[in-house]
Amino acid sequence: MKTSIKIKKFWYADVASDGGMGTNWAEIQVGQREATVQFNGSDADVSNFKNVLGSVLESALLKGDKTMAFQFADLTPEVIAEFVGGTVTSDSEADSFDCPENENQNVEKSIMFLTEKNVIWRMPRVSFDSYPIINDDDLHYFQMNGVVLQPEKVGVSSFGFDVLKTPDANDIVSFVLAAQTGAATIDTGAHTVSIEVANGTVVTALTPVIGLSKGASILPISGSAQDFTTPVAYVVESASLISQTWTVTVTVAAP
User: How many separate domains does the chain show?
Assistant: First the structure.
């Protein structure tokens, strides 16, 4: 198993608290170097147990590792810290990243990427080791090497893929707020979402969980706090890179 082709979209998220696939996906918008994503499987290791005459009595099969890697040329400190650990600071002169004092970090992420063939590959749990590469012949970039691990949640596969049937779809399919009084009303024709929250809810920093058409991405991202004092515009981009603006309106229930 090996794939190393052009990538249209690349997402990462924290592994879910229950050990399954992450949910609040952040898309790497710029800087993932073209054709550098690889997802590889290695051959199984067979151990033969022999008697004193050299005859094989029993064999043991150990599955090979699955690995994924990519090169990231955007040195945005906040994104690098997601894969490396470390500290991010900012002042009027610079945005800065400092690697962790103990560089033996166990950074695990859920990963998805979309190929030019409109196939989404999914890996719920990848453990990363990352390091910078700087030379005169190429861009400054970080090499991100990962080992695909079995998720801790029972019943979740270590990887999977989806062959998209509707790559042009750019809909919001669900919109959830912690304080909502009922399900959101989603109008796919008008591209609007309306949702009511309980009386007394402060709407200046609400954090929605947003479901999308498969393969689509959204800005602002799901899970980021937004001020819904006035309607908020979201841009959903399909797997085929067609964008659609959606308007989300939050109302507070009457006393």
Answer: 2
21/56 Cα distance (integer angstroms):
42
pLDDT greater at residue 197 or residue 27: 197
Q: Encode pLDDT of 17-32 as tens digits.
A: 999 999 888 887 655 5
Last residue of a domain, one of 163, 193, 223: 163
Distances (CA, A) of 99 to 1, 15, 81, 109, 230: 33, 22, 8, 18, 40
Domain that holds residue 184: 172-252
Q: Is the pLDDT reported for residue 37 higher than 90?
A: no
Q: Which tokens in the block code for residue 150?
A: 């079995």
Q: Are residues 68 and 194 in the same domain?
A: no
Instruction: Give dist(CA 86, CA 229) in Å, integer.
Output: 35
pTM of the model: 0.77
Instruction: Out of 102, 129, 163, pick the residue that ends a domain.
Output: 163
